[in-house]
Amino acid sequence: MKSKIKVGAVSYLNTKPLLYGVEASAIRDNIELSLAYPAQLAQQLKEGSIDIALMPIAAMQEIEGARIVADYGIAADGNVVSVALFSELPIEDIDTIILDYQSRTSVRLTQLLCQEYWKINVKFLPAGPNFIQEIKGKKAGVIIGDRALEQLPNFKYNYDLSSAWKSFTGLPFVFAAWVSNKDLPLDFLEEFNAANAVGLAHLDEIAEANHISYYSLKTYYKDNVCFFLGEAEKKGLALFLQKISTTQNS
Questions:
Q1: pLDDT over 90 (residue 222)
Q2: How many CB atoms lie within 10 A of CB 104?
Q3: Is the pTM of this model over 0.90?
Q4: 19 and 74 belong to one structural domain
Q5: Which of 117, 141, 143, 232 could disulfide-pair with 98, CB 3.0 to 4.6 Å?
Q6: Quick one: 123 and 186 in the same domain?
Q7: What CATH number does the domain containing 188 carry?
Q8: What are the tens digits of pLDDT across the range 131-170?
Q9: Same domain as 165, residue 88
Q10: Range of the structural domain that residue 143 is part of
Q11: Does residue 70 share a domain with residue 186?
């Protein structure tokens, strides 16, 4: 029996439209799907326990042979809403930022924006399990994913990281993409790419099926998240990888 291709995806609301078609199409019989948070997926791909991961793009640089294998991912051209710096004080008054451990991309983007865009000198701390409770006074925190949507009304200041990147560079920002580090059958990749597209025609249905009380998923899926990685998204992705590579090597 032919072995199934192991696919790992982020367990956030923003992946529902991409997984909709994957789970509903015939390709579902040929894959073994697992869900985790972004940093775990990058580690699993690196270890070889999965074959494809919807993973943070910043982690690609740490995985030999990593390349994007589909036209779809998680990006934004302006406000993404679900990746933001939350604070009780304006950004020029903070001195510490707690970094959400779930995504390397959000961590690196925050550090880059602090250095090159906001031009603030702050101390960075790794987040613990209950770090949201520590965001007070001059200590801010980056929150991502479903937790960020839930925290929108709870802080006076909310700096959307994708919006800041757009203001800084004029380009969209890509948070995650389908990545593999091995050769996979071309017919499988074509079928997998097509399956990703299916959910984009069912966004209203997916939003209703996953309803949350604290933010409109129809707005999120249609106005905030970009699922197709076009030329502008690819330019933004390349610029980000180039910038963090330069920073790492300097």
A1: yes
A2: 21
A3: yes
A4: yes
A5: 141
A6: no
A7: 3.40.190.10
A8: 999 999 999 999 998 999 999 999 999 999 999 999 999 9
A9: yes
A10: 83-169
A11: yes
